[in-house]
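Field log, afternoon session.

UNIT: design team B
ACTIVITY: writing a sequence onto a fixed backbone
BACKBONE:
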């Protein structure tokens, strides 16, 4: 796993650990090294979970376009319903966003 220069992971919530582990395994199975392109850094929409340490972005440009949807779906399946995996044109966004009555998130 690589962290892109300038990416801030200090303050990343422990809840994001499964996302890092599963993405790293999935990317390796696809023959690529996982590159984290955004953590708590960058400019995002108001209320973005990046600001709370609950979201990460992963590089996807080195995969053929035909693989993008499959990889996003596989990561979502591995992480389950507490995570949202969103495929953007330039990256894959992953956030911990459980909908449970006992979680006091942001």
């Amino acid at each position: 796993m690589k962290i892109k220069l300038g990416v801030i992971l200090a303050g990343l919530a422990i809840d994001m650990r499964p996302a890092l582990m599963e993405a790293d395994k999935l990317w390796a199975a696809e023959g690529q090294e996982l590159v984290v392109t955004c953590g708590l850094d960058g400019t995002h929409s108001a209320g973005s979970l990046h600001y709370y340490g609950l979201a990460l972005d992963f590089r996807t440009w080195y995969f053929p376009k035909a693989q993008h949807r499959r990889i996003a779906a596989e990561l979502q399946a591995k992480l389950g319903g507490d995570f949202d995996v969103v495929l953007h044109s330039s990256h894959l966004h992953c956030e911990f966003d459980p909908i449970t009555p006992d979680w006091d998130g942001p």
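LOG NOTE: Strands lie at 2-3, 35-38, 55-59, 83-87, 91-96.
NEXT ACTIVITY: expression trials, pending approval
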